[in-house]
Amino acid sequence: MSYGAFGLVEVIGSSNAILVIDQMLKTSDVSFLTWQTKCGGHATVFLTGDVSAVTAAVESVKGNPPCEIVASAVISNPSGETIRLTEEEAARNHFM
């Protein structure tokens, strides 16, 4: 599969992850891929779409955050290895 960009947003708590996902999906034409949780309750949400849509979605939660945003990033034109790792995580979480 081809991806124009990945958007990543890290928050604390699964409930906050859902708030962030909802806001980003409503903001622009992006698709949810997966999320990953770590110790301490941190959750990183992964979305995809074209670069401008992903950037708009990530900026929407940074500019009008529904909760505390720990970190965020947009990866345009992700490498094959980055795609493989993300797809494996999505498959583990049964999102793909």
UniProtKB/TrEMBL annotation:
Tell me which Pfam families the record gives: BMC (PF00936)
InterPro entries recorded: BMC_dom, BMC_shell, CcmK-like_sf, CcmK/CsoS1_BMC
The record's subcellular locations are: Bacterial microcompartment
Q: Which SMART domains match?
A: BMC
In terms of PROSITE patterns, this protein maps to:
BMC_2
BMC domain location is: 5-87
Q: Which domain of life is it from?
A: Bacteria
Q: Describe the family membership recorded for this protein in Swiss-Prot or TrEMBL.
A: Belongs to the bacterial microcompartments protein family.
Its recorded name reads: BMC domain-containing protein
Q: Which organism is it from?
A: Blautia aquisgranensis
